[in-house]
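Checklist before submission:
- one chain only
- standard amino acids only
- sequence pasted in full

Submission:
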Amino acid sequence: MRHLRKFRRLTSATRRIAAELIARALLNNGFRPHHHTTFPLADGTYGNHDDGPALSLLLLGDSIAASLGTTHVHETLGAQCATTLSHATSRPVHLRVLARPGTTTGFMKHQLRKALRHPHPPGIALIIVGGNDIVAGTPLRRAAKNLAHHVTQLRQAGWHVLVGTCWDVGAVPAIRHWLRIPLSRRSRRLEHLQTTAVRQAGAVAIPLRDPRHSTQPELFAADRIHPSAHGHALHLQALTDALTSTTPTP
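Returned file contents:
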């Protein structure tokens, strides 16, 4: 068991080094991953605690789901989703954010283990992942297959699963100009593969791609990489209908 923990620490360190090298190659803003890894912790209960049985909401995936780029809890995507869900259902919402920056679809398996041990009854699991697969060179069919496997595990455990599909990585302001078109094409391809895989696995696919990402710089945080509070509010607009229409019955 001790050797396994050492191997996991080594693997994690290797991933951090690889992420920094990739970021330096792709970005032109002096980005340093270890300076941009904190985000507000939004875990907790939202809504009136006396309004009936609580609904569980899990967020899994990468830095978008974790809301890296925000500075206050109420700005995070998790808090916004939980508040919206509570208002729509007149029920309190237990939110737990398992998402972590830098996560690829393959490494989401660690989050899945925690999700399947969640102490509250299954509710809604929202997954947003794919951007790191785009920049890390993950084979896109493999990423889609991994995503389908994660969705299937959650569905079998009783969760209603929503997936925000890959947005346009090429629209990120800090991306080097000559990489925008190839990254946009790769993003669109993964979006298509994710949509097909997610639907076949019995979940709901929600497109997060929006042309405003290319024209409204205020949608990005100061690092010009991650969504700002305005960017997360835009994502919430895309997610709201699916969130409120797939609510499990108490």
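Reviewer check: The first helix runs from residue 2 to 26.
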